[in-house]
Design brief:
Two copies of one chain form a homodimer. Chain A is mainly alpha-helical. Helix content of chain A is 66%, strand content 8%. In chain A, α2 (14-44) packs across α6. Chain A binds a DNA duplex through α5.
DNA sequence: GAGCTATACTTGAGAACTCAAGGATCATAG
DNA sequence: CTATGATCCTTGAGTTCTCAAGTATAGCTC
């Protein structure tokens, strides 16, 4: 790490290489999410997590999901989701809905305002992602990168999303 | 995103590809750092950020750095560093040191205990990184990945580290 | 149908940040 | 030498999470 690790030259053993790659991964994540979330906040008053949840709901069947499934798909804890949805509910973007067959679960449903919001926000946000992330790579590099990243642990996401 | 975006099959346009790659990047980061930091905490009572700062100091000249430079290299704000170092100082891993030539700056210096701590922690932590991240890739894939990640915005890290 | 365990959700307390503001020192320009 | 502005650091307040504990419901087993 430090000087050696982030400069390209000192890359030598397989081990240092892993360290370099990991450090770049970490720093890039910090730098990009910082910028993305500040833009998202400024333009749409949404957190990156808010946005993430909204998009999950947007694509879900009936634009509705169990809270626990949201938690798993965006990698937050159940209690994190409770608090996050509290916010989105008080903004009128999401509503609660009881489940007929299981009284333990409450669905989160996207409201009309929520749909509108996410459609607006997605435009600028996708452009930002393209600028800060995607545009760095040629088409076939994108595929490579996507494939490589796909080998990393994604926790429950893959399962939750391949359903 | 959602179903389409994280499954490999629905990958089609360049745009969706960027979205997929970005989502994988985000989720992988969440999943890996969660696991890494829980192991680090359990074995060594260190945060991922603590560790990061400690390693930066470990490799710095004289094992000493200005707080502002630490902030830039690990991508935290100055105030975040103040609080983080407060913790490390009260654990005796790091000490303050006045700068002779500039009274505004206080250095953070790694103590003997700090050196020992980081050398211990690095062993298991590097193994964890290898397990959760590096081991997913063949040697030449590591180089590819490292190169690709190097094109992403790393904020001040590159400058701070190439010095 | 009584008890057990598992699941879904919420809540209180606390960790790890951020931002905005303030204090101290430095560097420069007049 | 003195004002001006930049830089380094800290602090108070607020945000967004987490973990642990608690409540309520479900389903299974005997």
């Amino acid at each position: 790490m430090s000087s050696q690790v982030l400069s390209t030259q000192a890359v030598s053993s397989a081990h240092d290489l892993t360290e370099t790659a990991w450090l770049r991964f970490l720093r890039a994540h910090a730098a990009i999410t910082r910028e993305l979330s500040s833009r998202l906040e400024a333009l749409h008053e949404l957190t990156l997590s808010d946005f993430d949840v909204l998009v999950q709901l947007y694509y879900a069947e009936g634009r509705r999901m169990r809270r626990i499934d949201i938690a798993r798909s965006v990698l937050l804890t159940a209690s994190g989701i409770t608090r996050l949805l509290d916010g989105l509910e008080s903004c009128g973007l999401v509503a609660k809905e009881r489940c007929a067959s299981d009284a333990r679960v409450t669905y989160a449903v996207l409201t009309g305002a929520g749909v509108k919001k996410i459609e607006e926000a997605r435009e600028s946000h996708n452009a930002d992602i393209e600028e800060l992330f995607g545009s760095r790579f040629a088409p076939e590099e994108r595929e490579q990168l996507t494939e490589l990243l796909g080998r990393l642990p994604l926790a429950h996401t893959a399962e939750a999303c391949s359903a």
